[in-house]
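To: structure desk
From: M.T.
Subject: fold request, one chain
Message: Could you run this one when you get a chance? Sequence is below, nothing fancy, just the single chain.
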Amino acid sequence: MEISRPHLVRIVALDEGIAPRIREALYKAIYNPGDSPLPQGILEDERLSKYHESWGKEGDFGYAAVLEGAGEVVGMCWCRLFRGTNRGFGYVDDDTPELSIAVWEAFRGKGIGGRLLDATISEARSRGYGGLSLSVQRENRSVSLYRRSGFKILRCADDAYTMYLGFG
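Reply: Done. Structure tokens follow.
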């Protein structure tokens, strides 16, 4: 299915009906510059499973991009607090939610990622967080989206950036 105008996509808060699709979204969010698909089992790795398991914990929030009429999810942006030793790749501190985002391939380049990101940033501010963090591969073209939204590179490790958007 193709869309020609971004207004045909509705941005909605994640709820118990949509949240189970976070696992699928995480798979799509993993940067894979190769030609062969990643194995589905990769999501069971404890470093990744923490991003999708047991949605609805304190501090979990996010949005989905849904096609008008069809109700088909075509993207998601979600945040989770990682505390103590249970740290994510983009961990900054125990009080900063880490953001993950995915837009289904056929719907990329249509402004959907920016709309999801804007809604998520707005929600984080309204919840009183001081900022958001994320981890992104340096070669991932999404780096430019994050920079346009105000994220700054906090640190670089191996081939990934940890980026941070402060609200202060």
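Reply (cont.): The chain has a mean pLDDT of 91. Let me know if you need anything else for the meeting.
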